[in-house]
UniProtKB/TrEMBL annotation:
Name of this chain's protein: Probable peptidoglycan glycosyltransferase FtsW
Native source species: Arboricoccus pini
GO biological process: cell division; peptidoglycan biosynthetic process; regulation of cell shape
A Pfam family matched in the record: FTSW_RODA_SPOVE
Taxonomy of the source species: Bacteria, Pseudomonadati, Pseudomonadota, Alphaproteobacteria, Geminicoccales
Subcellular location: Membrane
Family of this protein: Belongs to the SEDS family. FtsW subfamily.
Known EC number: 2.4.99.28
InterPro entries noted in UniProt: FtsW/RodA
Uppermost EC category: transferase
Amino acid sequence: MMRFARTDRSVVSTWWWTVDRVMLSGLGVLALVGIIVVFAASPPVAATLRLPHDHFIIRHILFLLPAIGLLFCTSLLAPRGVLRLAIGMFVIFGLMLAVTPIMATEIKGARRWISVLGTPVQPSEFVKPALVVVSAFILSRKPGFLGFVLAAMPVAFVLLFLLSQPDLGMTALTVIVFSSQLFVAGLPWFIFVGIGGAAVLGLYSAFHIFAHFHDRVVSFLDPNSTGYQVEKALRAVASGGLFGRGPGEGLVKFTLPDAHTDFVFAATAEEFGILACLMLVSLFAFMLIRGLNRATEAPDRFCQLAATGLIVVFASQALINMAVNLNLMPTKGMTLPFVSYGGSSMLALAIGMGMLLALTRKGAKLGTPG
């Protein structure tokens, strides 16, 4: 455990005494759980793909190490530094997002990944935290309806290219997060009614336009047509019981292709039991409540709106992943934060949570433009 004297005015010491160490500890627990679960669930997947037994375990740790570094470095920033980082990320990854439908290889009916120096990158993952901070800044500086119109412009830009991939799950998440920021900003209710109506119309249109989305919804609504992976995930949850089969003793992971990524929650249920899953759900719920409380206490409107959006991104992604694993909503390729194996998702989440820690530090305040 770090120990610093309160009289020490170094950057790291100041960070230690002002950062939310409880939330930081929660993220550490999630990262540790992720290592354990990926270690237990990934070897059969690696064997199926004819990769080394520990391929995904090693890569998970290799992604986790820079993620920890990014989270720490980002959490050291002042609110203005967070804003500058977000603007830079929005420009860079926004441009990458714009060219993704053209440059990306189609996988399962969607184009979401592009290669950067031989490494696959999903730009939308990095656009998420950047968009949250940028929209929070606009809403904090231009209150009322004008603020909504100006903040909606970058959001509309992102939604346009998400739909062109198409990535309907990320589109829905973006709308949910932006709506939460509008609610905290105190925007009139008619705006929420309009957003809700547009969302319903958008989902209806997507159902008829995108074949893969149509098939997923039809399969979800038909009790006799459960998808292959969802059926396997439900069997894993049911077979785990209260205490699970034991680490490494799960069977469903041998036939579940995404046991270490999208369906890691089901793999956890089978090997460690429902009680372990309930503890994991409780941890995510605690992180959400803690984050919202810290956002409420922020003395700066920008910090409050940005922190709210960032914690809603984190919690919504966790909720969507677990809901898919339990067949409570149609399948969506979304990882469980800091638990699932993943490169772009892990790094982007680290930056986002680093921003949250920075914006909720004691005394954090953007102040007037300078």
